Amino acid sequence: MIFLELFWAFFRIGLFTIGGGYSMLPMIEELAISDYGWLTQEQLLDFIGVAESTPGPIAINLATFIGSMQGAEYGWWGRILGAVCATLGVVTPSFFIILVIAIVFERFINSAPVQGFFYGVRPVVVGLVAASTVSLALSVILPSLELKMFRSLSVEGFDWVSLCLVALMFVLGHLRLKKKKLHPIILVLVAAGLGMLLFGVLGL
Q: I need a surface site. Which of 3, 22, 32, 159 has the fewest CB within 10 A?
């Protein structure tokens, strides 16, 4: 049943992913697209854009969106139940793991194995976030590149407009006005407005 599948899929994502929302993206992509076929790559990118633009952690927002979408065949109650199952699935492992850590943290924080664990996990988290960044960037800028199987290295279909938007947002994100960076909400609104203008109105 779809609701049990949603809970189990996102439970595994929450249980086996270290590093928070962005490091979950490769596993969400693998399960939602390759294993279950719930989404296309383009739909996942759209969902990530919406999840990043709305309040709350990106992984939980993604789980809620995907669960609601998959439960839609059962009507409005299916959307609600699907969203609840997927959301509970992704947060349940973290809740219990953090609860256990909070209980024993002070007792073991100074032990060498625990310190070694934290030092070992850090580069893994960086690698997962970097992999998500590269995969998403290539999916947007060079959609014809099949990164996973390396079947195609053609630059056909290179999206120069998206590349320019990425570069612009990168520059604006590091721009300082009166010694302060632009608020992320401003960047999201600017990007959304430019997207509506360039891709919606002008049809680029």
A: 159
CA–CA gap between residue 60 and residue 58 (Å, rounded)? 6
Residue 51: partners with Cβ closer than 8 Å, 6 or more residues away: 58, 61, 62, 65
Task: Report how far residue 93's alpha carbon sits from residue 27's, in angstroms, rounded to the nearest whole number.
Answer: 15
Q: Count of CB atoms within 10 A of residue 118's CB?
A: 9
* pTM, entire model: 0.66
Cα 61 from chain centre? 9
Here the tokens at position 135 are 């995969």
Which residue is it, tokens 């969106």?
65
19-28, 170-179, 180-189, 193-202: which range is least confident on average?
A: 19-28
Mean pLDDT on 158-169: 79
Is the predicted pLDDT of residue 99 greater than 80, yes or no? Answer: yes
Are 89 and 6 in contact, with CB atoms under 8 Å apart? Answer: yes
The residue assigned the tokens 């439970």 is 11
Q: Which amino acid is at 78?
A: G
In the block, which residue shows the tokens 């927002």?
61
Instruction: Point out which residues pair with 111 in neighbouring strands.
Output: none
CB 27 within 8 A of CB 17: yes
